[in-house]
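G.,

No rush on this.
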Amino acid sequence: MCGLAGVLQNNQAEGDLTTCARRMSDALKHRGPDGSGLWVDQAAGVALSHRRLAILDLSVEGHQPMVSESGRYVLVFNGEIYNHHSIRTDLEALGRAPKWRGHSDTETLLAAIEVWGLSLAMQRSNGMFAVALWDRQENALSLARDRMGEKPLYVARINSGWAFASELKSLHHVSDFKGVLNREAITAFLAYGYVPDNLCIFQDVLKVPPGGIYKLWADCQAPELTKYYELSGDI
């Protein structure tokens, strides 16, 4: 288990992104006691943070946030890709593999995204995961979850843009996150004993859907949703 969090803010935003991202990350320390990392581009208004539980690659080469070989993408990742060795083999067979720095599935995923794009890389990845990907070319943030939604990922609309995190408690460390309770979600919880996937206990907070990708721009009022996987209606 690892944890990820961050913000994407517009040009009117004030405050130190590094401080904000560090506070968000500290709230997730229990998810990743083996290390922490920050990547901040104050001019672009983006900050990514990560709490690491080292499993597949215990070296510094598995440290996150991780930057792709081309420098275009920056990734924070929670989970495990079970078939990442075969993905590496496929990339090598195509002659598109980078010079591998380590043995982590995070590095494999970044290389796959460089070659196939995020959606196809997700389709080729078998596992449980939550992903936040910053595209420095498009100035866009993408948030994705595994097919069954095993790994959590929340995204909140804030006055200055967006905030995201593996757990809701992290969002409370963003200065303009309101944390207003969602009455519809409370009603559903009292009726069913849980909050349905299409709701969140707080207003203006979304759950990234299983098998889905939210693409965000700082000044957009709504995220762009694409699905790389849908459960068949025949089961």
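When you get to it, here's the other one too:
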Amino acid sequence: MTQETDKPHRTIRSFVLRQGRLTRGQQRAFELSWAEFGLEYREQPLDLGEVFGNANPVFLEIGFGNGESLADMARRHPERNYIGIEVHAPGVGHLLMKLGEYACRNVRVCRHDAVEVLQQMIPDGALAGVFLFFPDPWHKKRHHKRRIVQTGFLELLARKIRPGGFFHAATDWDNYAGHMLATLQGMPQLFHNTSASGVFVPRPEDRPLTKFEQRGQRLGHGVWDLIFTRRP
């Protein structure tokens, strides 16, 4: 008789790691700027005051894409610190180029899975806000389990966001917008909806309007923003 063994649990990822080719500019940005802006993944909480050299509030963006929005926010808010997480090298390289162009020094970048970075590297109650702009919607029903906004993920965010801090998400998929809204509203003990109507909020002026979003608007696509604050 053979003995059955349990198969190791496989974590469901909210992203597919694609190999992208770096431009010469992006490669050079890695070579020149990673030592200053890069955060290597480690299974140990960061001392954020030491990382940034100040006690300014820290905001984190998950999946910053090409980094245009993150660089723009950092340029307009030098009194804030930002951590950007992105797994795709060309996007990281592009952000590093923009940080050099804008002479920003208030951003750090980690190229790793965002959930693991939050679990291992971010101290509890350390974040003033978390941004999640246009995550992969995984629009096919059989792929909905891959969507990053799930109850477990929001419980993790609730530990990392300080009371009064916020979670700001935006999507151009109405089905995903409804999913995020329903999941967040199902956790009233942790999060409060800032919308006066109890659903979505208008795009805040502070959220940069991306080229991707502008293209969608020209095609008649809607965009839904949610801002929920962490309850005390």
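DSSP finds eight helices and seven strands in the chain. The first helix runs from residue 24 to 37.

Enjoy the weekend,
O.
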